[in-house]
C-alpha cells in the first residue's frame, strides 16, 4: 500500500506525458483566477515534489537526469496541462498568456512583464534556445523523414521561431508535418534562459535541426547523432545559479530540502503569496505520512496509503482532494510462455481474481476496482463507448465455475487434491512478479496469490529488486505474469500504445504500425490480429491510427480496441488509480478543490500562478 | 554369571551418562534465567517444527484489514486481513531453519579450517588464515543484497548456505587459537608419538575438546544470522511471503504505517518480540553452556 516514489513518479509522469495538451485557441488560454494577490505575505510553504526527488549535488538544470529543478516553482513552461480527455489541447497559461493555432504552427503571446529572476525580460531568444534544446533531448524531431504527413508519439517538429514584436512569437511547424499535438508539445516544453543555456549550444544548431528534418537520410542521421551528443553536454551542464522565470527561484539545496525564494520579477508576482517554498526530501511514503501527522506539509503529493493512515492524516487537519488519474494497474502476460498464450486461460484467471477484494487490500484509498478490462480507465471508456458497446463488454465478475469450465475446455485437468494441471499433465503454478517498494502491488499480489491458490493454481508473489530491473527483465521475457501500468491516458492513443505498442512489438511511423514479434522490446507477444465479432482487426494499427485521429473521430476506433482488449485480455485491469492529494488549511488557504481537475493535474506552483494558495 | 555379565556394561554406561546429564541439569537450573532461556529455545524450536501443523493455509479477509486483537485473531490481522499469530507461528520455521543451517555450514567450514590450520601450522595455516581474513572482509549484508538480485532465497537452504559460507571466518579464527593451544598438550603429543594419523588426531582427539567452545561460538553467530536474514526480508529484497518475520516488519512499517498509527502496531511488535525473545533465549542459555564447558566456572560453583 505504501507505494514508494518510483511508482508514484511513474504514474504521474506517465499521466502528464500522456495527457499534456495542445492549445488550439486563444479561448483556451482563459485564466482561471482563483484568488487575490498575495505578494509574498504568506510565509513559508512546505511541500514535497513526488515527481522529482531532491538529489544532493545534482545541477539546477531541468535537462539533467535528476535535476534540482521543480516544475511550477522554478521550472517554467509556456503552458500547463489541464488533463482533459475531451480536449487534449486545453492548457492553463504559463509564460504564454495566450496562443492561437494556425496551419503554419502556433502564435503565442508572452505574458506581459515576463522576466527572469535576474531582472531581464523573457524574449524570443529564450523560446528559440529552449525549443532547440528539446531537439537535443529527444523530445523534438526527427520524424516523418519518409515524407509522412503526421507524427505519432510525443515528438514535435519546429522549423523556425520568429519574433513578431510586442511579445508575440510565431512557432512554425515543419512544412508537411501535421502533428495533432504540436501546440501542446511546444507549450509544455521546458523554457530556459538563453543567457544561461545559449552558450551551451553550437551556433549552427538550427542548421542541424534543418538537416534532421531534411530528406537527405544520411545528413539527417549525422545531424541526429550530433544533436544527441550535444544533448548530453546540455544535460551535464551545471549553471552557477538558478535563473528562473517561474514564481520562485532556488536559493540552495541540501540533502534534506530545497529552498526556493519568491521571484520578485515573476510576471504575476502579486499573486504569489508564499515568500518561500521548502521542498523536503523523503525516503519513502511512511516519511511523508510522518510529516503529515505533524502537520508539517502544506501540500502532500499522492502517496498510496492504507485507510488507517488516511484517517490519521485527516485527523491531523488535512483535506483530501481527488482528481482523475488516467492510470490503471493490471496483471499482464507474456504470451510466448504457455499456457498464457491461450485466451481461455487469461479469461479464466480474470474470472478467478476478485478485483474488489484485491483493490481493498492493495489500493484502498487511491484505487477503484476496474469495472472490466478495456485498456482505458472506467470513466474514460464510459464517456466514449455507447450504451450497447458497454453492455457488450464482459465484466468478468468472479465466477470460478466459469473459470473451471474454460480451463477444462482448453484441456486442463484437476487432480484429486484440487490442483490444476496443464494440458500436458504438468502441474500448473504461477509466479506473480512485482517490484520491491511498490507495496500496493505487493499487497495485492498476496490476495491474488491466495485466490488463485484456493482455486487450485498454486501461486506465489515474487519481487524484483527495483523498477529499472523489473522493466529490463520483463522486456527480456523473464516473467510470465506480472504487474503493468496501462490506460495511460487521457489520450486514448497513449493508452492503447501502452498495450499494443513497443511492448508488443509494434513501431509506429506516420500513423502506420509495423509489427515485429522478434523486437527486443516485445514481451507481450500477442498475436498480430484478433478476431472480434467476426471481424479481423490489427490492434497495433488501430492504436497507431488513434494517434493521428482527432478526439472527435476516435470513438469507433476505441470501440474496436475496447472490445478486442475485453475479449482477448492481453492484461487484466485490476484497479484504476485516483489522484488523491492532501492540502492543509492551516497556514495557507484557497487551495483547489475536488472537481478542479485542470489545476489538480499540476503542482502547487501552477496553482499559485493562477492566484491560488494564499497565506492566512 | 550371565546376569552379571549383562549388568556390568549397562551399569558402566549408566554411570557415564548420569554425571553429564546431572551437570547439565545443575547448570541449567542453577539460575532461573538459564532455565528460562532453555524454555524459550525449546518453545521456538517446537513452534518451528509443530507450529504449521496447527494451521491450514493462510486465509485473507479484505474486510478486516489491520483489525485489532479479538477471540478469532489473538494478535489481530495484517494488511490482507490474515491472522498475525498464524503468520508468526508458521514463520518461525524459516527463521529457525535458516539459522540452524547457517550454523551447520559455519561449523562445517569454520571448525574444519580452524582445526586444520591450528594443528598443521606453517604454510597450511598461513593459506587458510589468509582465506579466513578474506572471508572476514566480505561485508555480509551488502553481499546478500547483491546476491538477492540473482538468487531468490526462497528456501532456507539457500539463505543458510550463503550466511554460513560468508559467516565462518570468526569461528575459524577462534577455533584455530584453541587448536594451537591444544596441540601442545600432553595427550596430543602422546597421540603423535603413538603414530596416530593426522585425521584421527584432528577429528578424534582435538574436535571433542574444541566442540563445546565451537558450540558457544555458533550459538552467538546464530543471533547474527537471525538478524541478517530478517534484515534482508525487512529491506524487501527477497521473496515475498506473508509469514516471514522480516516481511511482516517491512509491511508493518512501510505499508501499514505502524510508526505513525497504533492500528498496525501489534503487527509490527509480534515478529519483533519473537526475534527479541529468541535472542534473549539464546543469550540466557549460553550462560549455562558456558558453565557446563568451562572447568574453571564449574570449580568455582
Give the terminus-to-terminus CA distance of chain A: 34 Å
Main sheet: strands, sense, barrel of chain A = 7 strands, mixed
Order of helices and strands of chain B: HHHHHHHHHHHH
Radius of gyration of chain A: 25 Å
- Helix content range of chain B: over 70%
- Given helix and strand content, the structural type of chain A is alpha+beta
Mean pLDDT of chain A: 89
Number of helices of chain A: 20
Largest sheet of chain B: none
User: What oligomeric arrangement do these chains adopt?
Assistant: heterodimer
Beta-strand portion of chain B reads: under 5%
Query: Which protein chains make the most extensive interface, counting residues with beta carbons within 8 Å of the other chain's beta carbons?
Result: A-B, 40 and 33 residues
Q: Judging from the principal axes of the Cα atoms, what is the shape of chain A?
A: globular
- How far is the N terminus from the C terminus of chain B? 43 Å
Low-confidence stretches of chain B: 1-16
- Our Rg estimate of chain B from Cα atoms comes to 23 Å
Describe this structure in words.
- The complex is a heterodimer of chains A (616) and B (301).
- Chain A is an alpha+beta fold and 616 residues long.
- Helix content of chain A is 31%, strand content 22%.
- Chain A has 20 helices and 27 strands.
- In chain A, strands 13, 14, 15, 18, 19, 20 and 25 form a seven-stranded mixed beta sheet that branches. In chain A, strands 1-12-11-10 form a four-stranded mixed beta sheet, with no helix packed on it. Chain A has a four-stranded antiparallel beta sheet with strand order 5-6-8-7.
- In chain A, a hairpin with a 2-residue loop joins β10 (248-254) and β11 (257-262).
- In chain A, α5 (205-213) crosses α6 (217-236) and α10 (355-362) packs antiparallel against α14.
- Chain A is globular and about 80 Å long.
- The two termini of chain A are 34 Å apart.
- Chain B is mainly α.
- Chain B is built from twelve helices and no strands.
- Chain B has helices at residues 2-29, 32-50, 84-120, 122-137, 140-147, 156-167, 169-182, 186-193, 198-234, 245-255, 265-293, 295-300.
- The longest helix of chain B is centred in the middle third of the chain and has 37 residues, at 84-120.
- Chain B is elongated, with a radius of gyration of 23 Å.
- The interface between A and B is large, with 40 and 33 residues.
